[in-house]
Design goal:
Layout: E1 3-5, E2 8-12, E3 15-18, E4 28-33, E5 39-48, E6 51-56, E7 69-76, E8 78-81, E9 89-91, E10 107-110, E11 121-122, E12 127-129, H1 133-136, E13 141-142, E14 149-152, H2 157-167, E15 169-170, E16 178-187, H3 189-202, E17 208-214, H4 219-239, E18 243-249, H5 251-264, H6 278-286, E19 290-292, E20 298-307, H7 315-323, E21 326-330, H8 332-336, E22 343-350, H9 366-390, H10 397-414, H11 424-435, H12 448-454
Length: 460
């Protein structure tokens, strides 16, 4: 039996206080009905004795608490799921946004997900091909991994996200059961239109589920959007045995909404005004990625966040780096040079890349060429920095070769554009072509038998 209370005492921003309640649970769903029949929804944020603090999903403007009633529904926020989700666009609360009909649910799942026993987790060790050389060749994405993209304001992370969503696939058997869940948090209407149009133009929407939360939507909806996306991913992965790639953009907008709600609750702020539980909250999202023993499906996460003032020590990227397994860094310097995508491979990192490459997964020469490319590009960058200080005349012939390699690496390997989809074989072959610019004696990180087999003849 549902309980209704007309004891609403106060509304401050997105928060509402209801007194005299009993049997109310944390995160329980609430409906606020006004005298004219209008209904708004929210959830229980905190319970203290007979007082309940609610968080509204809609704006509180025009709400008359004298005549309004709060109805506690006895369940948490749930998402209706079925295979008909594929190809659909929803808002941040899981309601259809594409003009299509409501889903006929196969089941309803709690947006906070079911806890995963750590002992039941399986180790990520299968390669995911994104078609982007700077990721596939040097900072490999592995199925079940969480690999964030650290961007900056104005950098083209939206185009990169669309490219990954369009091109990503798992190689080998069972690759037809691959899906993309895309969660957009606090983006503009133009960005939302870009994503939807790109997905429809390329046909990628047929295997995708989109959750779109716009900048003018309530802050509390930003709290729900990534959880709705991950709940849909868990259904597809663990109920339907699909390989699911979850792309969340922009997590900075999510953290800002969390800070806004925390300030409204008058909580003691932590670093830069963010709540002290920001780490725990982000972990509750990121740790929903992974593989489970006995289940064929998996969830791989690529959260995208824009670093305020390009500061990687800012709390959001800083805490994200602790939780996730590496990061892909976008560079403003490379963006100004016109490189697309402007991925800076040297500070980028994938901690699980060694588990997803090699013979039987990509190719036997992958690890060796990756290490040699990193080394040569780093030396080329150092040579160019030396030339800026002392002039080209101070460079040796070998330094000039490395500087030329650095330029060729950026223009051919990194700057592939947003519409080029390279297979892992094409990426590795291109790496060998670039390494052929250097003397064979400099390729010290690759065994002689691999040099004999793969290095283009007559060039080194």
């Amino acid at each position: 039996m549902l309980k209704e209370y007309s004891t609403i005492r106060e509304v401050v921003g997105p928060l509402m206080l209801v007194e005299g309640v009993s049997g109310v649970k944390y995160s329980e769903l609430v409906e606020i009905e006004q005298a004219n029949g209008e209904v708004r929804s929210g959830r229980v944020l905190e319970v203290n004795g007979d007082k309940a603090m609610l968080q509204l999903f809609e704006p509180s403007q025009g709400l008359k608490i004298e005549t309004a009633k709060a109805r506690f529904l006895g369940r948490s926020v749930e998402l209706s799921v079925s295979m008909d989700m594929l190809g659909r666009v929803f808002d941040g609360m899981g309601r259809p946004r594409d003009g299509g009909p409501e889903l006929i649910p196969e089941m309803r799942l709690d947006m906070n997900g079911a806890p995963i026993n750590p002992a039941a987790r399986d180790y990520p060790d299968e390669f995911i091909q994104t078609g982007i050389s700077a990721i596939d060749g040097l900072n490999t994405l592995v199925r079940g991994q969480k690999l964030p993209v650290f961007s900056g304001s104005g950098l083209p992370h939206a185009q990169l996200a669309a490219q990954i969503a369009r091109q990503a696939r798992v190689l080998g058997s069972g690759t037809d059961k691959f899906a993309v869940v895309f969660g957009a948090i606090g983006i503009t209407f133009e960005e939302a239109d870009f994503f939807i149009s790109d997905f429809r133009r390329t046909g990628a929407i047929d295997r995708a589920v989109l959750f779109m939360n716009l900048a003018n939507d309530p802050a509390i909806e930003r709290y729900a959007t990534p959880r709705m996306a991950l709940t849909a991913a868990e259904y597809l992965a663990f109920e339907k045995d699909m390989h699911v790639l979850v792309i969340l953009t922009d997590l900075t907008n999510y953290a800002e909404a969390l800070r806004e709600i925390s300030a409204a609750r008058k909580e003691v702020p932590g670093r830069r005004g963010y709540p002290g539980y920001l780490y725990t909250d982000l972990a509750s999202l990121y740790e929903r990625a992974g593989r489970i023993r006995g289940k064929k499906g998996s969830i791989t996460q690529i959260p995208i966040l824009s670093m305020p003032e390009d500061d990687k020590t800012h709390p959001i990227p800083d805490l994200t780096g602790y939780i996730t397994e590496g990061q892909i860094m976008l560079s403003r310097e490379l963006y100004r040079k016109g490189l697309q995508p402007p991925i800076d491979v040297l500070p980028s990192l994938s901690r699980l890349k060694d588990k997803g490459i090699g013979e039987g997964k990509t190719r036997e020469d992958h690890a060796a060429t990756m290490n040699q490319l990193f080394s040569a590009y780093s030396q080329g960058k150092q040579a160019k920095e030396l030339a800026v200080i002392l002039g080209d005349a101070a460079l040796s012939d070998l330094d000039k070769l490395y500087a030329a390699f650095s330029d060729a690496f950026e223009s051919r390997y990194v700057a592939q554009g947003y519409n080029t989809n390279r297979s892992i074989e094409e990426t590795l072959d291109l790496g060998w072509e670039l390494l052929a610019m250097l003397p064979r004696s400099e390729l010290k990180r690759i065994r002689d038998e691999m040099l004999d087999r793969y290095l283009p003849k007559g060039e080194a």
